Structures are given as structure tokens and as C-alpha cells.
What we know:
The chain is α+β, with helices and mostly antiparallel strands. It has five helices and ten strands; from the N terminus they run αββαβααβββββββα.
Amino acid sequence: MINREDMLALTRRMTQARSSVTRIAGSYMDQDGEIDGTFNTNFLKLSPQEKGKNLKIAKAIPFSETNVNLKRYRFPDRAMKPGSMWQLLMGMKTCGLKNDALMETFYELIAESYQSDHEYAVFVFHDRYDIPAKAANHERLGESEEVFEYIICAVCPLAGDYEPDKPECGFLFPAFYDGGAAQNFVDVFQADEKHPHPEILKILGL
Length: 206
């Protein structure tokens, strides 16, 4: 089960004033899964308007209804072997999305399995959350104890030319649990829990 307070700790920082997102990368796909352009840029170089628009997309994943639209899954041992999606995600996180070859592989794996009758975009965000140290009474002490490094992936239908709409599915990896990273878990988002995209689970190896 996902702790709602953990997700709120992440989303409270997803404003232009407080954001620590370092990078954003993405790919645009046609309805047949053919890649129609990619991008990869330093988040700080975006205009204020672009930052705000993209933070709204990223925030939609952890801010969604906990344990309803956003559910936690454990990677089985077979899904954490060399060549697995888990290993790819770890590599993407560790390099901060700066390895274009890894990103291209990720987009291609999504395109192979994702089912869509419309054009869509895959946006990936890299963030580092300096987890504040807290006393026993939960008062913030100031200095951070550790850093939670993670990525958010959002799959969005296109509302226009290269213009993403609200995410229809996605995930947060690794899961944020008890003030740190749960490397063997991922939080998967479905905008419509009654009509989900089960193929995202297959893509992740779950």
C-alpha cells in the first residue's frame, strides 16, 4: 500500500519555486507506435511557462488517488535480471536521463506494446528530493539525511501538434517508502482504473 503522505511530500515540491527536477526527456509517437521525434533537455533551461506546464504533467502521477489510480507493484525476481526493464530504469535514473541510447531503447520498448488509437507522447522526468531530517515530534531539523533520486514517466495523448494532454498512464520509479527508495517496487498510474492500460504492467515486466 502507498502512504499518501509520502506522495504529498513529493508533490508539494512540484512548483516552479520549489522544484528540483533536473531533466526532462520524451518521445512523440503516432498511433502505430512509430517514433515521430524526441527531445532531452535540462529542466532549468525551460521557460517559466514550459516549466509550469511540464510540472503539471509530472505531478499528475504521484498526486493521483492513492491505491486507486496509483498502485504499488513489486518487481518479481525474474524481472530484475540483466537486460530487464528494471535494469534499464535503474540506468536511466543513475545517468539522470542523459544517455540517449538508453532513452531510445525505453521509447522503443513502450512503442512495441502500448495500445493506442491516437497519437501520444512519453515524457520522463528526473528528480532528486533532499529528504529533510526530522525530530521525533516530526519537526524539521533542516539538514537532509539522504537523497531520493527517482524518475516519473507519463504517457499522454496529444491534444495538438506536439502538445500533450493529461497523462492516461505512467509510473514513479523507484517507489518512495518510509523516507527512502524501495528499489524493488514501482508505483503505476492509471487515469481510468476501470479502463486501464494493462500493457504498461507488461512493459515493466510485472
